[in-house]
Amino acid sequence: MPTMENLPRMEFTNGSQNNKDMNKKDKIDLSVNFAGIKAPNPFWLASAPPTNSGYQIMKAFDAGWGGAVWKTLGMPTINVSSRYGSTNYGDTRMAGFSNIELITDRPLEDNLREMAEVKKYFPDHAVIASLMVDTRQEWEDIIKQVEDAGADGIELNFGCPHGMCERGMGSAVGQEPEVLKTIVEWVMEAANIPVITKLSPNITHITDPGLAAVHGKTDAISLINTVKSIVGIDLDSYAPYPVVDGKGTNGGYCGPAVKPIALHMLKDLMQHPEIKNTPISGIGGIETWRDVVEFILLGATSVQVCTAVMHYGFGIVREMEAGLINFMEDKGYTTIYDFAGKALPNVTDWKHLNLKSEVKAIINEDKCIGCGLCYIACDDGAHQAIALPTDGGRIPIIIEENCVGCNLCSLVCPVEECITMEKFDDGTEHETWHELTEQNRIPNTWNDDRAGGKGHYVPEPADALKNKRKDKSGTK
Ligand SMILES: Cc1cc2nc3c(=O)[nH]c(=O)nc-3n(C[C@H](O)[C@H](O)[C@H](O)COP(=O)(O)O)c2cc1C
Ligand code: SF4
Ligand code: SF4
Q: Are the CB atoms for 240 and 232 separated by under 8 Å?
């Protein structure tokens, strides 16, 4: 859940400080011009249940959202009941979310009438019509209808991984770059407003459909749609969730769990020489201002949100906006274009990483609660570099020479900032696998002295049986 603790620190010392902060904030301009679609801010709702009706979109704009991609319009559908499933992880509900819903099942005329009404109330907000139809004629007809209703842009839904793909649409198109390109070309010929091509992540190389969209002359790209998935099996009916009368099907996965997939695909597109100049709207697991900033740092210039709104409601945009403004103020940015893509030069291939850089774990004894999780993780799952104290104390000890700096203990430690990874090299040496390969210096036998793990301590296999705890395991 987004919290105010996530926000960069704001210090108000007195009235004049307050005024100074207000002045700086006043200079921040969140407005975007995304491939010609203008919006007061980059926070947009993704095409999904929160954009199912004019009522919801007006409520969202009133709460602070700058744009909305209408729930996909297309051809008549019939939905099933039930429709959603989720991955609950520990105390976290909906860490991942799944649906087997289709495009809108509401009449097209109702959607168009409501779209026109929303534009009347909110002329400066972005209303984008998500579309999915079949034949060229159907594309031309529906484009004309949404343009007449006042839509500011069109988004092509080539991502739905259930139901619609069985009818030759959605991800069936997203997975076939040549077909995708042809449809984008049809749309570009027919449309008078900007066109965003929304990509499916259900493909090995996202640059294939990305490039096809660019070759079809799309104005912009958005990604990701949902990931083909099964979230679980009901242990009574033996059917996958969500269960529909004793049966189930693959769903589309989204929510916080898919953010890493979305960020990676965004980066792949933004680093492609032929795609990188096409504006990209980032989607997938966005919930907090920090998520928004991360997507922008990888090049997105608007973001879209579905699951987080389905979980917490439209109000989350307030935290997103406050957090984004504080971040920009802290870093001295006035528009999102000042930092869009700033992380891209730092995302490189593994072979270019510095093999001479060295970090090791340090435990802050004042913060440690002696839970032992770091010891178990390192001893069973990493490099036997943590010892338990033998003097009756509870604070584990890092065995410096064994620590390879893998991060695992710091990731499992339940206390914030208790285990930190500290730099141990002096920063003077730099050597990469790529350089070693170029210089013909890579280890090339199993026993090569230049191999990374050679000589690194591991306990003898039989040591595993020596220290069995009598209380739990008894003696052997
Ligand atoms: C219940 C549900 C229905 C959706 N319907 C559509 C849709 O009609 N058209 C579309 O392009 N994407 C649809 N999506 C995908 C979302 O727009 C979005 O791409 C995806 O959920 C990832 O974003 P999130 O992690 O913020 O949810 C739907 C997602 C959900 C959960
Ligand atoms: S960083 Fe890895 S190797 Fe080092 S102590 Fe932690 S878990 Fe062990
Ligand atoms: S996991 Fe963290 S809190 Fe628990 S023993 Fe290790 S250092 Fe201490």
A: yes
List C-alpha distances in Å: 122 to 66, 86, 117.
Answer: 10, 34, 9
Q: Ligand 2 centroid to 401 CA: how many Å?
A: 10
Cβ atoms of residues 161 and 225 within 8 Å: yes
Per residue in 431-452, pLDDT (tens digit) is 999 999 999 999 988 888 888 8
To test the pocket of ligand 1, the residue of 43, 53, 254, 263 to mutate (highest count of ligand atoms within 8 Å of its CB) is 254
- pLDDT-derived band at 75, boundaries 50, 70, 90: confident
Q: Which ligand is nearest the CA of 383, by number? A: 2
Report whether 68 contacts 42 (CB < 8 A).
Answer: no
Taken in order 182, 188, 189, 190, the sign of the CA dihedral is: positive
Catalytic residue list contains 160: yes
Q: From the candidates 160, 374, 403, 413, which is the catalytic residue?
A: 160
Helix/strand/coil (H, E, C) string of 263-309?
HHHHHHHHCCCCCCCCCEEEECCCCCHHHHHHHHHCCCCEEEECHHH
Distance CA 194, CA 221 (A): 11
Question: What's the pLDDT tens digit per position in 158-192?
Answer: 977 777 677 777 777 889 999 999 999 999 999 99
Residue among 75, 55, 52 nearest 63 (CA): 55
Q: Is the CB of 373 under 6 A from ligand 2?
A: no
The response to whether residue 421 sits with its C-beta less than 6 Å from ligand 3 reads no
What's the order of all strands across the beta sheet hosting 227-229? 84-89, 92-99, 251-254, 227-229
Res 216 pLDDT > 50: yes
Cα 459 to ligand 2 centroid, rounded to whole Å: 15
pTM for the complete prediction? 0.92
